[in-house]
Amino acid sequence: MICNSRVYQLAGELQPTRDPDGQLCTHRVPRRLSAEVLLDAVSQVTGVPELFDGQPPGTRAISLADPSFPSNFLMTFGRPLRNNACDCARAGNPDLSQALHLVNSTTLHQKVISDNGRLATLAKANKPEAEILDELYLATMSRRPRADELAEIEQLLRDAPSRPEGLQDLLWALLNSSEFVFNH
């Protein structure tokens, strides 16, 4: 019912001609994924699960009942301590530390370059480049790459020192994109 409503189906872009002040509900406001959802999404896209001490392999961040599990990623992205019943405990505003964490964190880097991840599996399968790009885009963006994106990707892969490094750079860029990090 909600998905069929007009408000739910609004475009994600603000159109200044229709709503100069941004107050007339003419568009959806993008929201950053919560800390747990973002970590699970990164793990799913890369094919490298996050390991939590004392939890069985495959445990998702969203399933952690105890907020005291140490995770720099979850702490940086605003996982609440759950010490009150108010939803206001969750920090939902993106900040510089989160952007820097996505760009520089070992969490993301190790998942992208993992020998057991999605990217390594695709590279070992010797699939055609177009098929690999489609799979990466479908996994991260839930869509295929547009023509203009394909032209940029081809240039990126040509300039890369090696094919695997070029694909790693592409996956890293997709995981850092606002289209991936924000719920549009």
SSE string: EHHHHHHHHHE
Number of strands: 2
The main pleated sheet reads as: 2 strands, antiparallel
- Number of separate domains: 1
Overall pLDDT metric: 82
Helix and strand composition category: mainly alpha
Task: Please provide a written account of the structure.
This protein is an all-alpha fold. It has one domain (32-183). It is 46% helix and 2% strand. It has nine helices and two strands; from the N terminus they run βαααααααααβ. The protein has helices at residues 35-46, 72-76, 96-104, 106-113, 118-124, 129-141, 147-159, 163-176, 178-181, and strands at 31-32, 182-183. A two-stranded antiparallel sheet has the order 1-2. Helix 7 (147-159) packs across helix 8 (163-176). It is globular, with a radius of gyration of 19 Å.
What is the compact description of this entry?
This protein has 9 helices and 2 strands; from the N terminus they run E-H-H-H-H-H-H-H-H-H-E. With 184 residues, the chain is mostly helical.
Main attributes of the structure:
mainly alpha, two-stranded antiparallel ribbon, 184 residues, 9 helices
What is the fold's blueprint, element by element?
Elements: E1 31-32, H1 35-46, H2 72-76, H3 96-104, H4 106-113, H5 118-124, H6 129-141, H7 147-159, H8 163-176, H9 178-181, E2 182-183
Helix pairs in contact: 3-4, 7-8
